[in-house]
Every structure is written in C-alpha cells, then in structure tokens.
Write a structure and sequence with these properties.
This protein has about 200 residues and is of the alpha+beta class. About 40% of the residues lie in helices and about 20% in strands. Strand 6 and strand 7 form a beta hairpin. GO terms for molecular function: ATP binding; protein serine/threonine kinase activity.
Length: about 200
C-alpha cells in the first residue's frame, strides 16, 4: 500500500487524502463504505466502468487518474482511485498572485486560467461526466497558469455510497446553483452556473 500523509477533505462519497506511492506524491480517493460497492454487483460494475472511463481520459485541464485499486494484498475489497497530486488551489492563486498584480496582468492571467477551466469542463461534459462540485478548492493552478479540474466523482455510484453523516458546508453552498441549494441533483447546467460564479470570483 502507499503511505497516507494527511486528509485533504471529506465529501458525500469519498474521503480524500494525500499519500506517497512508489516515490511519487498522489491524491487518493476512498469511498466511505467500500462494502456497499462490494455488496451490490451493479454498483461494483458501475464503479469499475467509470474508473476505466476516467483512466482513459486525457486532457491538459483535467487531473489525471494514475490508477485504480480494487483489492488489497490480502484479496479483500478495497476501492481506491489514485490521481496526480496538484497542490495549489485556485483561491490561493487568486488571493496571493492575481489580486496583488496590476490590472492588466490580473486580466490576462485570469482569462488564461478560466479558458483552461472552461476547456476542462467541456471535456468532462463531452464524456457525460457531471462535475457536481465546481468551486475554487476543486480547481488547481499549475505552472504557466494551467488550471486543472479535480474533485469530480463517480456520479453513478455516488448516491449509493454517500456518507449519511455528511452535510454540505456553508462555504460550498455559495458555489451551488439554485436547484442544488433546494436539494436537486447535479447536472450539466448546474456545472455551468457554478463555472459562472467561479469566473466572477477570479476576474473581480
């Protein structure tokens, strides 16, 4: 197994932590209750199908899936998704780099980041993947102002393995569409609404 380092966040579907795997820094997503997946054949197949879909995707503005683990060294079920480690969130980039910059630099670099963000979201939607939680903490900015989307989950099994104790944080609500705030499901349209909010945040 890799070596866990620290918890990065907890969502309705997964707990996310930073780890080291074969000498490389990675981010690991693990369902709160793997047995729910293991105990239902259709859910297990959905997990494996969508994991393969994520593994096959390749886009500059979407975090890369390094691999998926379906069992541990003892053969016990252990459903993990391992992605590349991207450590600078968009809100930190905005507050520490864009806001102190001059107006021209702010506009130019902000537009570059948002173009990449829009391209990444378009790519996900073309593969029929709804992000569902688009907000600054789920956008990472790498070298040369390359934005990468993180934080999207396996939407077909998310509802089945959601943590019953998970509640939406107030800060997350700020980036939701009106229908999500009313308890509606995530959709392509709600992603676009959240994208607009993120764009306003970056450029203001």
């Amino acid at each position: 197994r890799g070596k866990p380092k620290r918890i990065l966040g907890t969502g309705a579907f997964t707990v996310v932590y930073q780890a080291t795997y074969e000498g490389a820094e990675v981010v690991v997503k693990e369902p709160h209750d793997p047995q729910v997946i293991d105990g239902d054949e259709s859910t297990r197949k959905a997990f494996m199908k969508e994991a393969m879909l994520l593994f096959s995707m390749s886009h500059l503005n979407v975090s890369n899936l390094v691999g998926a683990i379906l069992s541990d060294e003892h053969g016990d079920s252990w459903y993990l998704l391992v992605t590349e480690a991207l450590l600078q969130p968009l809100d930190r980039f905005v507050e520490l780099i864009l806001r102190p910059a001059g107006a021209n630099e702010h506009q130019a670099r902000g537009r570059a980041v948002l173009q990449g963000l829009a391209d990444g979201l378009t790519y996900l939607h073309a593969h029929e993947i709804v992000h569902g939680d688009l907000q600054p903490k789920n956008v990472k900015v790498e070298a040369n102002d390359v934005a990468k989307l993180v934080g999207f989950e396996l939407v077909k099994v998310k509802q089945l393995v959601a943590s019953p104790s998970h509640s939406v944080k107030q800060g997350d609500v700020c980036w939701m569409s009106p229908e999500q705030r009313r308890g509606g499901r995530e959709t392509f349209a709600s992603d676009v609404y959240s994208l607009g909010l993120v764009m306003s945040y970056v450029m203001m």
